[in-house]
Amino acid sequence: MELAVLKYNGEDTGRKVNLSDDIFAIEPNDHAIYLDVKQYLANQRQGTHKAKQRNEIAGSTKKIKKQKGTGGARAGSIKSPLFRGGGRVFGPVPRDYSFKLNKKLKQLARISALSYKAKENCVMVLENFSFEAPKTKSYIAMLNGLSLSDKKTLLVLPELNKNVYLSSRNLPKAKVITVDSVNTYELLNADNLVLCEGSVSMLETLLLK
């Protein structure tokens, strides 16, 4: 698969880059994608939720009414889950939601996500660029030049560029990451994937090793 290499203002450089069919043209594996996205979202959870059970409620342990003769059910403690202010039955407790996935499955999921993007013609390649200073206006001008101003975009840089990252940080639909941070969830969450020219070979090395 060949794509034209563009300048960051949208002009054609006249060069083309060849994208590997082993990454951008496989038959996507939906189940691998599902598992990888599920793991990513699970890892975002803090797991700090907590509700008090009846043994943790502050209250009297005195029997609140006699056992028999009241016409109602017997009750032994005001801390019972049946009463307002009582403990919660099987309430949430702090836990770790993360789980393990094999490296090859995660690799297959990322390749599948990239293949989906290529199939939908949502991949662009830019020549390597940088901004002289961190300015949101510069990043917006770049998106306008690429006709992506109203799209969710994921820009993949070969290495961290602080000026480009800071320029995009205030834009809710723009995300900038480096090659080693590429993940299935963010690939699929973006409408368009924008690769820097230097990221292409690094991405192939990372995913085909």
UniProtKB/TrEMBL annotation:
<dbReference type="InterPro" id="IPR013005">
    <property type="entry name" value="Ribosomal_uL4-like"/>
</dbReference>
<dbReference type="GO" id="GO:1990904">
    <property type="term" value="C:ribonucleoprotein complex"/>
</dbReference>
<dbReference type="InterPro" id="IPR023574">
    <property type="entry name" value="Ribosomal_uL4_dom_sf"/>
</dbReference>
<protein>
    <recommendedName>
        <fullName>Large ribosomal subunit protein uL4</fullName>
    </recommendedName>
</protein>
<comment type="function">
    <text>Forms part of the polypeptide exit tunnel.</text>
</comment>
<dbReference type="Pfam" id="PF00573">
    <property type="entry name" value="Ribosomal_L4"/>
</dbReference>
<keyword id="KW-0699">rRNA-binding</keyword>
<dbReference type="InterPro" id="IPR002136">
    <property type="entry name" value="Ribosomal_uL4"/>
</dbReference>
<comment type="subunit">
    <text>Part of the 50S ribosomal subunit.</text>
</comment>
<keyword id="KW-0687">Ribonucleoprotein</keyword>
<dbReference type="GO" id="GO:0003735">
    <property type="term" value="F:structural constituent of ribosome"/>
</dbReference>
<comment type="similarity">
    <text>Belongs to the universal ribosomal protein uL4 family.</text>
</comment>
<keyword id="KW-0689">Ribosomal protein</keyword>
<comment type="function">
    <text>One of the primary rRNA binding proteins, this protein initially binds near the 5'-end of the 23S rRNA. It is important during the early stages of 50S assembly. It makes multiple contacts with different domains of the 23S rRNA in the assembled 50S subunit and ribosome.</text>
</comment>
<dbReference type="GO" id="GO:0019843">
    <property type="term" value="F:rRNA binding"/>
</dbReference>
<keyword id="KW-0694">RNA-binding</keyword>
<feature type="region of interest" description="Disordered">
    <location>
        <begin position="46"/>
        <end position="80"/>
    </location>
</feature>
<dbReference type="GO" id="GO:0006412">
    <property type="term" value="P:translation"/>
</dbReference>
<dbReference type="GO" id="GO:0005840">
    <property type="term" value="C:ribosome"/>
</dbReference>
